[in-house]
Amino acid sequence: MTVMMYVLFTLILIGLLLIWYANIYNKFQSFIIRINEAEASIDTVLRKRFDLLNKSIHIIENTLETKNVLEIIIKLRSRKLSNFELDRQLYEAINEFNEYKEIHKELLKSENFVKIDIGLNESEAEIVALRKYYNDIITDYNSLVKTIPANIVSKISKFKTKTYFDGKNMEDEDTKDFKL
Predict the structure, then answer these.
(1) In the list 33, 60, 133, 159, which could disulfide-bond 154, CB 3.0-4.6 Å?
(2) Average pLDDT over residues 54-73
(3) Residue 168: which pLDDT band, with cuts at 50, 70 and 90?
(4) Taking Cα atoms as reference points, which of 58, 66, 56, 123 lies closest to residue 96?
């Protein structure tokens, strides 16, 4: 009878461990889904910003009768970048766009230029909110990766910490192996 109790106890213990593992694993999967959704939303806004800047090239060139405007955007047309890198490049292009706007007031007479400027300002608010949302999810995910007992599941399943979307150099020491 005692052998049967040990077997039953062992089976119950294994069952509880499997339930615990599945519960923690599902938490990781939930975070991964939310991270992917946030990345997709960020990607949408970044593509919108790129399109707006791309449209502004012709307006600026035609209004100022100049060439080689917003070369950053022209170079980005053929490159495949992570959202982190695209965001940094777009900020450089937006700064150049704003310089044109400040120096050449005649651009503000163009209705299309003003619409692009408004669109860029609206997208700035969106990207700030999405970046905060993304970073909040990453904070929770990274906490789960590093805290006991969930870190046992993260090591077994090879879940790694992920980088924050902060506009800085993303080659952080803890997260060099993660790429978008």
Answers:
(1) 159
(2) 86
(3) low
(4) 56
Predicted model pTM: 0.80
pLDDT of amino acid 77: 78
Q: What is d(CA 112, CA 180) in angstroms, rounded to the nearest whole number?
A: 34
Q: Is residue 180 part of a domain?
A: no
Is residue 113 classed exposed, middle or buried when 0-12, 13-18 and 19+ CB atoms within 10 A define those classes? buried
Can you tell me whether residue 24 is helix, strand or coil? helix
Query: Which residues constitute the domain of residue 126?
Result: 2-167
Residue 178 lies in a domain: no
Q: Answer yes or no: is 151 within a domain.
A: yes
Residue 122 covered by a domain: yes
Alpha-helix residue ranges (DSSP H) falling in 1-160: 2-64, 71-76, 83-103, 111-146, 150-157
- pLDDT tens per residue across span 88-117: 999 999 999 999 999 999 999 999 999 999
Report the alpha-carbon distance of residue 31 to residue 85 in Å, rounded.
23
Q: How many domains does the chain have?
A: 1
Higher pLDDT, 148 or 169: 148
